[in-house]
Design goal:
With 422 residues, the chain is α+β, with helices and mostly antiparallel strands. It has two domains: 2-206, Cytochrome Bc1 Complex, Chain A, domain 1 (2-Layer Sandwich), CATH 3.30.830.10; 229-420, 2-Layer Sandwich (Cytochrome Bc1 Complex, Chain A, domain 1), CATH 3.30.830. Helices cover 42% and strands 19% of the residues. The protein contains 16 helices and eleven strands. The strands form two sheets. The chain has a six-stranded mixed beta sheet with strand order 1-2-6-3-5-4, sandwiched between helices. A five-stranded mixed beta sheet has the order 7-11-8-10-9, with helices on both faces. A hairpin with a 4-residue loop joins strand 4 (75-80) and strand 5. Helix 1 (45-52) crosses helix 4 (114-132), helix 9 packs across helix 12 and helix 10 runs antiparallel to helix 11. The longest helix has 19 residues, at 114-132.
């Protein structure tokens, strides 16, 4: 693998990885801003701003960039999450200048006219309201805000309705000019090209954009949770759900990898933000304890890399006629078993294989390789990605038991039930 890393004079990090498996290129521009950088009054502003970057500029009027990428057979999109906002194009390798032109332009030249802002306000509010119809969204949001008392991870990326209704065009533009600066951005490119040539082209498009002021640091630190917290959500539907969340370390922490293996043992593992695999979890401990016994219809778990300490989540759909209390009790029994008894060498080996397979699914395409190139730089650096598999292989049964005892304790637990009004 030929990986080139450089930083322009204006602070823009550039990571370029040659991959000659297909004549395509994927360009991702990452900004280190998401709901982590928000506070009450402007929750949801990073996601709304992402929408605004698709509204156009003088050079690329509304819809023109999308059409230009589509005409060459490419794809064009973006996403916002806790720690980042990112935009990407995957297209034929010889069209890379198109992607660089689009992204360099909208780093500085997006329109923020009042009509476009108010039109998109309706869109983001509708998106929020649509999600509120989902019991899983409502439960997940309540569990998250109950688990966090201080850190901004406690509010949804979509924001609160009251904030979306109150924010102004000036609020959005201020957020844009604060965070959409080269020194807060990462350009990650993977594909069929010469890395040195792409570095020169990238500097041509981005090098003249002036450096911005240093972005405001996030200093909030969630205090240790000292008691179990519980939340009950009631609503429409025919199905009950149970979600159990534990505070977990940030991605660079050494315990992230034992927890990843633990999750594979308990739930079968979780896919990442891109490239989810199709592995079965039917041999996982929670599947056998909950689904095979008809306490739950399905069960899953997730741990995702984050800049600051995040949450390890377990979610189960309650079997009709059974209760959330039964599902919770059976889940906690399996967690206690992990805390009390070492996993067997065979089960540990299977869990590591499963975690590695999910990781492989998430990084097999050119688009996903470019995703990881930038994503890992958000919370650590590309070395984290490169060392992922060796670190999984190094996890021992004692490590799994230790993190189960350390993080999956009652005082670190938030339990949420969704009970349908039958």
């Amino acid at each position: 693998m030929n990986l080139l890393r450089t930083t322009l004079d204006n602070g823009l990090k550039i990571l370029v990885q040659e991959s000659h498996t297909a004549p395509v290129v994927s360009v991702w521009l990452w900004y280190k801003v998401g709901s982590r950088n928000e506070h009450p009054g402007i929750t949801g502003i990073s996601h709304w701003l992402e929408h605004m970057l698709f509204k156009g500029s003088e050079r690329w009027p509304n819809g023109a960039a999308d059409q230009a990428v589509a005409r060459v057979g490419g794809v064009f999109n973006g996403m916002t999450w806790y720690d980042f906002t990112t935009y990407y194009e995957t297209l034929p390798a010889e069209k890379i200048s198109l992607a660089l032109d689009i992204e360099a332009d909208r780093m500085v030249n997006v329109h923020f006219d009042e009509q476009a802002v108010n039109s998109e306000r309706t869109v983001v509010i509708s998106e929020r309201q649509g999600n509120e119809n989902s019991p899983l969204f409502r439960l997940g949001e309540r569990v998250t805000e109950t688990a966090y008392r201080v850190h901004p991870y406690g509010h949804e990326t979509l924001g609160h309705i009251a904030d979306l209704q109150a924010m102004t065009r000036d609020d959005l533009y201020r957020h844009y000019r604060t965070y959409y600066v080269p020194n807060n951005a990462i350009l990650a490119i993977s594909g069929d090209f010469n890395a040195g040539e792409i570095e020169r082209i990238s500097e041509r498009y981005f090098g003249e954009i002036p450096r911005g002021a240093d972005v405001p640091p996030v200093t909030a630190e969630e205090p240790p949770q000292e008691e179990e917290r519980r939340v009950l959500v009631e609503g429409a539907g025919d199905t009950d759900y149970v979600e159990i969340a534990y505070h977990a370390p940030a991605a660079p922490h050494r315990d992230f990898f034992p927890l990843t293996v633990l999750n594979a043992i308990l739930s079968g593992g979780s896919s990442f933000l891109v490239g989810g695999g199709m592995l079965t979890n039917h041999t996982s401990r929670l599947y056998r304890a909950l689904v095979d016994t008809e306490l739950a219809v399905d069960v899953g778990g997730s741990i995702t890399p984050t800049v600051d300490p995040g949450l390890y989540r377990l979610l189960a759909t309650v079997w009709p006629g059974k209760s959330p209390a039964q599902v919770e009790a059976a889940s906690l029994d399996e967690i206690a078993r992990l805390q009390d008894t070492l996993v067997s060498p065979e089960e540990l080996a299977k869990a590591r294989r499963q975690a590695k397979a999910l990781f492989a699914y998430s990084s097999e395409s050119i688009t996903n390789q470019a995703f990881w190139l930038g994503f890992s730089e958000i919370f650590a650096n590309y070395g984290w990605f490169m060392r992922y598999l060796p670190r999984l292989n190094a996890v021992k049964a004692e490590d799994v038991q230790r993190v189960a005892q350390t993080y999956l304790s009652a005082n670190n637990r938030t339990v949420g039930w969704y009970q349908a009004r039958h």
